[in-house]
Write a structure and sequence with these properties.
382 residues; Peroxisomal Thiolase, Chain A, domain 1; four-stranded mixed β-sheet
Length: 382
């Protein structure tokens, strides 16, 4: 497989926008910004890969028409919260296999005019029928973690405090103000023990990256810093047997191992992480599942600053889903944008010093009776 590089990135700020700011507007903005950052024109793009969940039929083609990319090979990818990263994986495979040299990947979502309240599983899913929606599942995870490992409510809440502090330095974040530990702990309850600030928001937004082979870079005379996509792991959940452990995160361990093996590195080599923190507890247990933190120590280490900017393993310098926002189809691609900026020294006030290897993790959706639906792990190296 040929080496694949990220040569440009662009985003539309995440937030809540009026109806006239459509999915097509969001996606076209991010795509144009990424191509401009890479220094490429629409004619230079060989193929387009678009991740979205609620965008409707042929969303990618509707976006492409606006930016001069109609007529190209365009594919649409839905894998719930992993959709943007799944689109990247398909583009990575195509460029790595020599099917094309330069590809554009877009993750996009317009949620605020489609989703009211919390996002629910498919109505036909047994968990949804029983009221076991995402917030309930993560609340159960938090309760079990606190019981098993002696973690406090404040330690779990610290994930939100940390990520909001990081997003102050991110101009693309939905929220750019710090919050206190007291605000998180005393916020409106959502699913005990989790409150409003423990939960990622409903968001609109888009992110895009241009990836290329070495041949494509030479053809287009691209000479700027171009971190490599060293691995793109993708796994799905397996059938649960017995009572099990809600925080075992076997699916995360398998996803991490798939990426570590392909990239030829281990968790000890990772300098910065973009983590799918849809809820505060999710960041903790998934870091542990990936082997990035010791089992049962994640909450304590978060409170101690281990995962903060300036700590040994900065997690979500972008602000993560909790503060950058979570337009589900765009999240995976936004994580790749952040790693690109980190590994090229362009992250401004949220820059991780000497970042050479980054990992991005997304977990999307649920299937009753399994430990998840889709999980992606992307490793990038400078």
């Amino acid at each position: 497989m040929r080496r694949v590089h990220v040569v440009g990135a662009g985003m539309h700020r995440f937030g809540k926008f009026p109806p006239q700011v459509t999915l097509e507007v969001l996606g076209a903005h991010a795509a144009t910004a990424a191509m401009a950052d890479a220094g490429v024109a629409p004619a230079d793009i060989d193929a387009v890969y678009v991740g979205h969940v609620f965008g409707g039929p042929v969303a990618g083609q509707r976006i492409a028409m606006r930016v001069g990319l109609s007529g190209k090979p365009i594919s649409n990818h839905e894998n719930y919260c992993s959709s943007g990263a799944t689109a990247l994986r398909e583009a990575w495979i195509a460029v790595g296999a020599g099917i094309c040299d330069v590809a554009l990947v877009v993750g996009v979502e317009k949620m605020t005019d489609r989703i009211k309240g919390g996002v629910r599983p498919d109505p036909g899913d047994l968990d949804a029928a029983m009221g076991f929606i995402f917030a309930a599942g993560h609340a159960l995870s938090a309760r079990r973690y606190m019981r098993d490992h002696g973690a406090s409510r404040e330690e779990i809440a610290m994930v939100a405090v940390k990520n909001h502090a990081h997003s102050v330095h991110n101009p693309y974040a939905q929220y750019q103000k710090p919050i206190s530990l007291e605000q998180v702990v005393n916020a409106r309850p959502i699913a005990d023990p989790l409150g409003l600030y423990d939960c990622s928001p409903i968001s609109d937004g888009a992110a895009a990256v241009v990836i290329a082979s070495a041949e494509g870079m030479r053809r287009l005379s691209l000479t700027g810093p171009a971190p490599a996509v060293a691995a793109c792991g993708l796994v799905s959940g397996t059938v649960l047997r017995g009572l099990g452990d809600i925080n075992e995160e076997d699916v995360s361990a398998r996803a991490g191992q798939a990426a570590y093996t392909f990239a030829g590195i281990g968790p000890e080599d990772i300098d910065v992480v973009e983590m799918h923190d849809c809820f505060t507890i999710a960041e903790i247990v998934r870091l542990e599942g990936l082997g990035l933190l010791p089992r049962g120590e994640g909450a304590r280490l978060t409170m101690a600053g281990h995962t903060s900017l300036g700590g040994p393993l900065p997690v979500n310098p972008s602000g993560g889903l909790l503060s950058r926002g979570h337009p589900v189809g765009a999240t995976g691609t936004a994580q790749i944008c952040e790693l690109y900026w980190q590994l090229t020294g362009r992250a401004g006030g949220r820059q991780v010093e000497n970042a050479r290897a980054g990992l991005a993790y997304c977990k999307g959706g649920s299937v009753s009776g399994t430990d998840g639906a889709s999980v992606t792990t992307v490793i990038m190296t400078a």
